Amino acid sequence: LPSHADLKPFNHAAAGHEGTLSDPDGMLFIKPCTQQEIDFYEKAREHPDFAELMPEYLGTLSLNPTGLADDLEKQVTNEITQQAAAGPSTTSGGSTWQPNKNRKLVTDKSVVLENTTYGYKKPNILDAKLGIRLWADDAPLEKRQRFDEISRTTTSGSHGFRIAGMRVYKGSDDPADLDDEGFKVYDKNFGRFEVNGENLVDAFRKFIFNPRAGIDEDLGKAVAEAFLVDLKKVEKVLSANETRMYSASLLFTFEGDGEALRSAIEKANEEHDALEKVESNKDVDTDGSEKTDGAVASSDAESSVKGKLPDVSGPIEGDLKVIEMTGSKLPDDDDDEDVEMTDVPKIYSLKLIDFAHAEWVPGQGPDENNLFGIRNLIKIFEELVK
Ligand code: ADP
Ligand code: MN
After folding, report:
1. pTM, entire model
2. Which of 304, 204, 314, 214 is nearest to 255 (CA)?
3. Same domain, yes or no, for 31 and 140?
């Protein structure tokens, strides 16, 4: 773990507040947050299917008034140790709480999460803010009215989500449109004032298909297929859980550099084929002992590789199996093969984020406000793979 002095600003957000941090390696995403967000992450430990949709949660971190960690190493280590030892619902003591004007608890705490953009050469990111209704029950009238007006005039109202921001590598022919890392950045005004029901699919097309970066029809469709499979999983898991989330987002990330994307898919498929070979060797094994003949036969690789992406050189098959790119796992209680996994190039990920206004509501049924948006995203991705 890094020392606190090495924390640096996180510069790859697609939307949201300032003040997020990362570590020197960039594996961590550290976000100042409300107690409600911490509570939601803690409670998610009891819902593993749901937790799988979220970025990996490593714990919390207290920041001193200058915004830097007092003793990052000690505290994060403590959190992780406590989590490992005590299991679900562990909260650490010693933090200070201050009531603010709205009588809400504010804290000097941050959530320490897996940085979902780590391991990519050029991560393309899209933040899709979910929900028709965007405010929680505790919101003041002024905020309700302001958010309702935004919803009414954007795809939040018509489709149950809107694009809160996106970054596309080589997203323009004009170099003046690109930032110093080569991304075209679409800020919150894009989804507020430019995207509507008519051009919504095109906006996603701009995100995924990009010949300038070497992402042609076939490659783009492979990515869209992968997101589609994950979106259907999100729908299934949300339908099976009882939550209310307001202004949460789905964070789409994929490799924006076509060459890196192609080779990451090829590498993953090779690994998949090698694993299958190992599996079939096991099948024909008669003496009862497990034959494992290669490095890829580690349990880590086995658990992260769920299937195979379409061969990007040929036509896209209808019957798609997908690799779940949990990729570079962060340290956790039983993981001693992190180093190996960090070398795996990433392809894509889909994560549910931003639980500042989220809660578990046992007995109240699924979160239809968010499911409406997710079902419309599924329809859009069904268009993209056609
Ligand atoms: P806010 O309350 O400021 O909206 P979010 O949780 O939505 O906070 O995060 C803001 C932005 O930061 C997101 O749009 C996304 O681009 C980025 N982000 C959030 N969580 C992660 C993560 N775990 N890894 C990488 N980037 C993240
Ligand atoms: Mn957000």
Report:
1. 0.80
2. 214
3. no
